[in-house]
Design goal:
There is one protein chain. The protein has 197 residues and is mainly β. The protein has a single domain (20-192), classed as Lipid/polyisoprenoid-binding, YceI-like (Lipocalin). It is built from two helices and eleven strands. The protein has an eight-stranded antiparallel beta barrel with strand order 1-4-5-7-8-9-10-11. Strand 8 and strand 9 (127-142) form a beta hairpin. The longest helix is centred in the N-terminal third of the chain and has 16 residues, at 2-17. The protein starts with a helix and ends in a 5-residue tail after the last strand.
Length: 197
């Protein structure tokens, strides 16, 4: 009986100390992009060039996973300076008043092998709404410098009107110049962060 109690106490102790490793997003090997319908006949794509974040990851325990990302709205890039400047105004992101967009996960739902749903709060223009990212784990590897890395690919679709991004004009034939639904695509490579002693 005492042996059983000792084993149980050990297992409880191990469970209590379990924690995921912290990974930092490597922006030079990652991308956060979006696409939106234009004139109801095509899609315009863009990226945010400045972002940062951390990921809590343990391949053995999805309940420990978490992610936080901060995106600089001023860094929007659609390969058209005039359009980018318009996107930075109050018609869209208002980058002066709202310099960042953020995502903070709240829950993980495991899916089929190598996939899961990451549920969290997305904040744009100080409006926070829940979103669900469909995520695929691309793999883990130790790089030539001996640093552990992990890769993910994710995506979701949001309605920009939900976040107060309401500018558009209606075409004479019907339809919007800028669509309401925005497809978000995320490709992340993150490296394990080792606390300096």
């Amino acid at each position: 009986m005492f042996k059983r109690l000792a084993v149980t106490a050990l297992l409880v102790g191990l469970a209590g100390t379990a924690q995921a490793e912290t990974y930092r997003i490597d922006p030079s090997h990652s991308s956060i992009g979006f696409s939106v319908r234009h004139l109801a006949i095509s899609k315009v794509k863009g990226n945010f060039n400045e972002f940062s974040g951390t990921i809590q990851f343990d391949p053995r325990d999805t309940s420990l996973w978490a992610a936080e990302v901060v995106i600089q709205t001023q860094s929007v890039d659609t390969r058209d300076p005039g359009r980018d400047n318009h996107l930075r105004t109050d018609d869209f992101f208002n980058a002066v008043e709202y310099p960042t967009m953020t995502f903070k996960s709240t829950k993980v739902k495991p899916g089929k092998k190598g996939t899961f749903e990451l549920i969290g709060d997305l904040t744009i223009r100080d409006v926070t709404k829940p979103v669900t990212l469909k995520v695929e784990i691309l793999g883990t590897v130790i790089d030539p410098s001996g640093v552990q890395r992990v890769g993910f690919s994710a995506g979701t679709t949001i309605n920009r009107l939900d976040y107060g991004v309401k500018w558009s004009k209606t075409l004479e034939a019907g339809g919007l110049i800028v669509g309401q639904d925005v497809d978000i695509t995320i490709d992340i490579e993150a490296e394990m962060h080792i606390e300096e002693q």
